[in-house]
Amino acid sequence: MEDIISIIANPERRKIIRLLTEKPRYFLELARELKISQQSLHIHLNKLVSIGVIKSYIVKSPYGPYRKYYALNSDFCIELNVLNGLYHINIWNPIKEFNGVNDLKDLEQLIDNIEKESDLIKSLRLTNTVLREINRRLNELNMRRLYLINLMAKARRKALEIIDKLNVNYVERKILKDTLGSDPEKIDELIDKIFTEEIELITRELKSKICKIFGL
After folding, report:
1. For the chain, how are helix, strand and coil distributed in percent, rounded to 5?
2. pTM of the model
3. pLDDT band at 212 (very low <50, low <70, confident <90, very high)
């Protein structure tokens, strides 16, 4: 998760992703649109391919040699919440099918009607109407979601105050803080991750001390 965040933090890589959300593009096409060197573009593309955000494939060009195209590999959403008492990152795939949401059936029906409409102008107007309605409903959901996130941060602040008062050691306190609100099946995984990070930290500190002692 952190790898994805760090890699797409680069503005040029975000531009590449934005362009590929529109349509697949071949290498030289991306270089022209981004106005960066081919060497830099190679580095950015390889990074994005390495984490599975984009993929590449070869297509025979009618104008000459084969072209290497790049396209999105999968849809994903990133959520980052930073509040007093709350730091939360989540990456997930959008839900394309969700049974039981009857209040969204009207939107699905409108989208189906777009595909049936032969008049391009009418089709575009209908699409615009659907998008405006989706944005309106998303705004309503976001207001509720933002309020829930604020409540989550408030609850976490209370929990952190309680944990700081407990008679536990540093590692136990860190485990309690990092597993707050976690599902029971994920707690073992989180604890293993915390211990791994602590061991790596202790190893680095010990190595630094040894180097200082021996003047290395």
Report:
1. 65, 15, 20
2. 0.60
3. confident
